[in-house]
């Protein structure tokens, strides 16, 4: 029974919480100087096949910055099944695939 449960969990579509965990890892690799608590992950689009997530800076007493400003840091697309993560290249207006290995996410450089 346990093996069946593990197999079903591995083949299950990605949840929003799991996507945010993976994107938090990706952001740490993109910019290791920004603490996790200074980023917010907002789902812009959520369908049964994917999430589009916008990463914004948190501006408060811990993170600094002007609270009236909502700076967008990144845009990601997370495909639920099979799991895939892509990072938006704003200059090309297209998503570039990231690499997922052992729950570590590495994304390509993009134009700003």
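^ Assign residues to that structure.
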């Amino acid at each position: 029974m346990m093996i069946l449960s593990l197999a079903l969990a591995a083949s299950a579509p990605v949840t929003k919480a799991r996507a945010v965990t993976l994107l938090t890892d990706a952001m740490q690799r993109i910019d290791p100087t920004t603490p996790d608590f200074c980023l917010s992950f907002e789902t812009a689009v959520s369908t049964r096949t994917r999430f589009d997530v916008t990463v914004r800076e948190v501006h408060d007493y811990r993170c600094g910055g002007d609270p009236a400003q909502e700076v967008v840091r990144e845009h990601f697309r997370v495909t639920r099944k099979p799991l895939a993560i892509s990072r938006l290249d704003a200059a090309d207006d297209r998503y570039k695939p990231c690499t997922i290995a052992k729950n570590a996410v590495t994304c390509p450089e993009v134009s700003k």
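DSSP finds two helices and seven strands in the chain.
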